[in-house]
Amino acid sequence: MAKKSKGNRIQIILECTEHKTSGMPGMSRYVSEKNRKNNPDRMELKKFNPVLKKYTIHKEIK
Questions:
Q1: What is the DSSP letter of 41?
Q2: Is 28 helix (H, G, I), strand (E, B) or coil?
Q3: Which position among 1, 37, 40, 53 has the lowest Cβ density within 10 Å, counted as fewest Cβ atoms?
Q4: How far is CA 12 from the centre of its chain?
Q5: Does residue 34 belong to any structural domain of this protein?
Q6: Whether the Cβ atoms of residue 29 and residue 49 lie closer than 8 Å to each other
Q7: Cross-strand partners of 45
Q8: Are 32 and 47 in contact (CB under 8 A)?
Q9: Tally of CB atoms within 10 A around 28
Q10: The domain containing residue 52 runs over which residues?
């Protein structure tokens, strides 16, 4: 049997906004999924940044 497509679900990459400005090496990125139909604009989530050792805002990148 053929696999059904997921339709409006797409894979996105979330990148930390505070890490860029901190000047520390490396980066904090997470991979997630979103429904393109329900969330057409870019997402922002609070995720844990292991380098900074705190929860920060991660924004969707293209």
A1: S
A2: coil
A3: 1
A4: 6
A5: yes
A6: no
A7: 58
A8: no
A9: 20
A10: 14-61
Domain-located, residue 44:
yes
How far apart (Å, rounded) are the C-alpha atoms in residues 40 and 43? 9
For the record, the structure tokens of 45 come out as 């989530």
Give the residue carrying structure tokens 């997470």.
30
pLDDT at 2 over 80: no
Q: Do 29 and 13 meet the contact criterion of CB atoms below 8 Å apart?
A: yes
Amino acid, res. 38: N
Residue type, 26: G
CATH number assigned to the domain comprising residue 21: 2.20.28.120
On whether residue 2 sits in a domain, the answer given is no
Residue 4 lies in a domain: no
Distance between CA atoms of 13 and 30, rounded to whole angstroms? 6
User: Considering the entire predicted model, what is its pTM?
Assistant: 0.80
